[in-house]
Design goal:
This protein is α+β, with helices and mostly antiparallel strands. The chain is built from 20 helices and eleven strands. It has a domain of 135 residues: Uridine Diphospho-n-acetylenolpyruvylglucosamine Reductase, domain 2 (2-Layer Sandwich). 54% of the residues lie in helices and 9% in strands. The strands form four sheets. It has a four-stranded mixed sheet with strand order 1-2-7-4, with helices on both faces. Strands 3-11-8 form a three-stranded antiparallel sheet. A two-stranded antiparallel sheet has the order 5-6. The N and C termini lie far apart (93 Å).
Length: 502
């Protein structure tokens, strides 16, 4: 009798598990009607392919095969929707943006590093922060930051020249050095703070290096996948978790120190400059009490600027140099434009001068098309919703694979996978491109608030480097893309660098 009951209980348990994690998601869920690939594993869905390939590569293949809305499956066959259709993107990112927030697992994971700033805020909190911060990112303010950006760019240029010395050329690690350069940049234009990362080590830059230079061990890969399903895994006393927590405490301490110092400067009537933090404190002090940000909220904005601000620009510049090293004829054409515009290698361009260079603009756009700063973003509906004719249940993850959208042949042609800056000079292409087919800084009210500053930094860095150096690829050296805050190279990008004596 007892054996019968045990068998019955075990059978019921197995039946519930099979229904919950196999039959329902694969055959009974409303998402089953959405076209998509078959699962590769009865419990892991399509996860193995997602881990083994670069960000957005599987979603690209599925978009080409199945169309603008696709359903694939994660661990225990959890349905995941991938959207590349422009009309659906408009609904999710613009028309109903606050009905499609970031999923909770992503917020909890990123909030530890970025704080509860504008990048992580949702709903009314985001609207309030965006409204308050927009005046700090006007073209007028960005123009005033350009001389500082130029100074840091030339300082890093001199470092490279000194490293090359009397050699004809030198093999150099590019991407990790550029992380230090852009952290110096955001330090001064963001907070009027001299990090001096490119000339010396410091606690803050080391903290960021440890956070973003994660070793690709089996345990680290497993945690990065499982955190989507088991968020509390980040709280376990694992070595990597402990290291990240130590680094975050350093970033939090530094950010709060800056806020308090700047508030004191303002209240004492001291000149505080035109850096982003000074502008925010000034704007904040003149707001009604109910609209003001607290010190903690301002601290979170600093954490956001520090992390997202330096990571996206260093990543974009690194990938652009890597691409130009693969295509020397494109690199030479860009250098020719730069030398004609700026005969002096120590040129100090204005905002308008750097933006007037047509081919530089094409190279920048094409670099961010081939390797967008953020390859994938994720949203989730706050209630059951309909996308096209398909019902998407509440809380279903919706992937927007920007890197896949940027290479769709229906938009970009049969050579969509090729690095061709000249495509941006073709009028019939620009008629197809809009904010739903090309979105390096996303689009809508959740687009990157600092995109004008990031573009200015990117253009100036690339102009200074290509004007003064030649970059060659290293035979046999390959890198893969990894998504952290931005699209990071793994391993760090290395190139052969030589001076331009003109």
């Amino acid at each position: 009798m007892i054996d019968n009951w045990v068998g019955y209980v075990v059978g019921c348990f197995v039946g519930v598990i099979m229904y919950r994690f196999y039959w329902y998601p694969l055959y009974l869920s409303p998402t089953c009607k959405i076209p998509g690939p078959p699962i590769d594993h009865f419990l892991l869905g399509n996860v193995i392919r997602l881990i083994n390939e670069e960000p957005a590569e599987p979603q690209f293949d599925w978009a080409v095969k199945y169309g603008g809305i696709v359903c694939y499956h994660g661990i225990v066959n959890k349905p995941i929707i991938s959207v590349t259709d422009p009309q659906l993107l408009q609904k999710i990112l613009v028309n109903n943006t606050y009905d499609f927030p970031k999923p909770s697992y992503m917020i909890s994971d990123l909030k530890a590093i970025l704080g509860d700033g504008i990048l992580m805020a949702e709903g009314d909190a985001h609207k309030r922060q965006r409204k308050m911060m927009n005046p700090a990112f006007t073209f007028t303010n960005i123009k005033e930051m350009v001389p500082t950006i130029v100074r840091v760019a030339h300082q890093s240029k001199e470092m490279w020249k000194n490293q090359i010395g009397d050699n004809e050329e030198k093999r150099m690690i590019i991407s990790s050095f550029l992380s230090k350069v852009t952290l110096d940049m955001i330090g001064f234009v963001g907070f009027k703070y001299e990090f001096n990362n490119i000339t010396s080590e410091n606690e803050l830059s080391n903290a960021y290096a440890r956070i973003f230079h994660q070793k690709r061990t089996v345990l680290n890969v497993a945690v990065s996948v499982l955190v989507h399903y088991i968020p509390w895994i980040r709280k376990l006393p694992l070595p990597r978790n402990r290291e990240v927590r130590r680094c975050i405490k350093i970033i939090e301490k530094f950010s709060l120190k800056l806020v308090k110092e700047r508030r004191e400067f303002f209240r004492e009537g001291k000149p505080i400059g035109k850096d982003l933090l000074s502008l925010l404190v000034s704007i904040n002090e003149n707001l009604p009490e109910v609209e003001k940000m607290s010190d903690t909220e301002l601290q979170y904005q600093i954490m956001t600027f520090l992390t997202a601000g330096h990571e996206t620009t260093s990543s974009a510049t690194s990938w652009s140099l890597y691409l130009l090293a693969q295509y020397p004829e494109i690199q030479n054409r860009l250098r020719k434009e730069l030398i004609e515009a700026f005969p002096d290698p120590d040129f100090e361009p204005t905002f308008d001068e750097i933006n007037s260079l047509e081919y530089l603009d094409c190279v920048i756009k094409e670099s961010m098309r081939i390797v967008p700063p953020v390859p994938i973003i994720t949203r989730t509906p706050t209630r059951d919703d309909v996308l096209q004719e398909y019902l998407v249940p509440k809380n279903t993850p919706i992937i927007i694979p920007i890197a896949a959208i940027h290479k769709l042949p229906t938009i970009w042609g049969s050579d969509a996978d090729k690095f061709i800056p000249e495509r941006w000079l073709i009028s019939n292409l620009t008629s197809k491109v809009n904010s739903y087919t090309y979105m390096p800084f996303i689009t809508g009210s959740r687009s990157c608030i600092g995109n004008k500053l990031a573009l200015a930094e990117f253009k100036i860095l690339l102009a200074v480097y290509i004007r003064n150096f030649k970059f060659k690829r290293i035979e046999g050296f390959e890198v893969r893309k990894r998504q952290m805050i931005a699209t990071r190279p793994y391993p760090a990008i290395e190139l052969i660098v030589s001076k331009v004596e003109v």
